Prior knowledge:
The protein is an alpha+beta fold. The protein contains 7 helices and 4 strands.
Amino acid sequence: xxxxxxxxxxxxxxxxxxxxxxxxxxxxxxxxxxxxxxxxxxxxxxxxxxxxxxxxxxxxxxxxxxxxxxxxxxxxxxxxxxxxxxxxxxxxxxxxxxxxxxxxxxxxxxxxxxxxxxxxxxxxxxxxxxxxxxxxxxxxxxxxxxxxxxxxxxxxxxxxxxxxxxxxxxxxxxxxxxxxxxxxxxxxxxxxxxxxxxxxx
Length: 201
């Protein structure tokens, strides 16, 4: 059994690409793979920095509001609600390009089998502590400040994988086996190259 912990912010395209790859590989490996999904927050990660543009400011505000919804869903229905909610959110954000209004988030919640009224959490700051606690667990596991996603493989945590597109077929499996091997290599620390965000067109 290989255990994965995946920390994501719903608005992050890199996390969305990596999460779809991981879900695909988890399905392919069946009972040999276990994945726990966790919330992190780009809004919290960047709260001490001035946004570089109005677009980034809007994205971080969306991240903050959706984080509250994920926290509310987890509190209401348990951590097993996170995966289907993230899947439904990601399809609307990254593929449909929908603006995350309360009405849209209500629809997304219903699609994920959750009460539509949880959309009220978007503007409920009482969930901020839960978001911050989950976010901090990911940072602590990584051992330094890290963005979205953060991936843990049997207790070894990395920032990434940062995917510029969705790998398929042999590439998807090669990435899986390589990351599992790297996580089991005690001397491996980091490997990086620049990448533009995926577009999911």
